[in-house]
Input
Amino acid sequence: MSNPAGRLHLLARCDRWVLALPAEPIERVLSAGGELFVRTDEGPDGAGPDRAIVVEGTCYGIWDLGALLGLGPQQGAWALLRLPTPAGALPVALRLTACLDVAALPPVTPLPQGLFASRVGATEGVFVLRRPPAGVEPLGLRLHLGRLWSEDELDGTRALVAAAQDARRRMLGRPSPPAAAPALP
Output
């Protein structure tokens, strides 16, 4: 694990935990309310979200961080990010309970990789919260965003975002962009 000390992280509440997400891929945070959802007929077969959120013209595949980690569905805030993947940045909206702060982390102690059984490797370490909010654990967890999703889930999210973008263009009466020309030999 790289030492995250000094790097900025979004500290977000998810159920009774404070989770630290690296700040670099996060575009913005939003409180819940007033979102425009686009339902699609095409979505990953149970592997990912079935809808997208549209914010200022950009479609993001919706994921609930609590559900990903087995903590149950969350409500209250969104972290909008461009998740770096080998196929390019993927717009993802993570639903959280609340966004608390953006700060550098205190020292992080590595944890066993299976803390959240369904997301092996997603939890990189634990840190002590100096002033934990009421109702949360006194320890925070640092997440590795690249390990939260499987390749199939990322592919499904990419397909969903493309379908949502096409559905939004149709709603607005705009044509879809032309397909890329095949490469010449």
